[in-house]
Amino acid sequence: MLPPPLRSAPPGFAEASAALTTLDEVLLGGLGRLADSQKDALRALARAFDGSPLGPLVTDSVNAACSGPAQEAAMIGLAAAREALQGASADALAAQLNTLLGRPAQDTPATTTVDAPAEALGPALQRPAVARGAWPRRSGPDRARRGDGL
């Protein structure tokens, strides 16, 4: 039997999970021809990020996706929103477990800084690694066995 703190999800977890599910359903259906209900779901997602650092990016991405066939720029904001929801959910579950185990709370999140101007990072952030040809290639016996060079 689970201890009482683990019998229920942390506050906000159900809402984040529902938003993730809705976003995944929209993405799985494709962004080429969004139905009105899908556009409404994306707009609700944008409203959920209002006031956050990702708010403007998510809003711009949602507007781009809702106005016509989605471009790559629209995908970046939607991917960022999805990752933020997943990260917040994971953080809430970890905090709940840490409390149960008596571990100290982590007041400051881990951060990474990059000492490079945004212009230098722009091209690297504009296209996924696969599109840049940076996907790792197989080597060794597996490559020879398959014969496809991948």
Describe this structure in words.
The chain has 150 residues and is mostly helical. The protein has a domain at 9-105. Helix content is 59%, strand content 0%. The chain has 6 helices and no strands. It has helices at 13-29, 36-48, 55-67, 72-101, 118-126, 141-146. Helix 2 (36-48) packs antiparallel against helix 3. The longest helix is centred in the middle third of the chain and has 30 residues, at 72-101. The chain is elongated and about 50 Å long. The model is unreliable at 120-140 and 142-150 (pLDDT under 50).
How is this fold's topology laid out?
Blueprint: H1 13-29, H2 36-48, H3 55-67, H4 72-101, H5 118-126, H6 141-146
Helix pairs in contact: 1-2, 1-4, 2-3, 3-4
- Give, in order, the helices and strands: HHHHHH
| Percentage of residues in helical conformation | 55-70%
Number of strands: 0
Span between termini: 48 Å
Number of helices: 6
In this structure, how is the largest beta sheet organized?
none
Low-confidence stretches are: 120-140, 142-150
Overall structural class, as computed from helix and strand content, comes to mainly alpha
Strand content: under 5%
Question: Mind telling me the C-alpha Rg?
Answer: 20 Å
- The average pLDDT is 75
Morphology = elongated
Key structural traits:
150 residues; mainly alpha; 6 helices; 59% helix; elongated; disordered C terminus
What's this entry about, in short?
With 150 residues, this protein is an all-alpha fold.
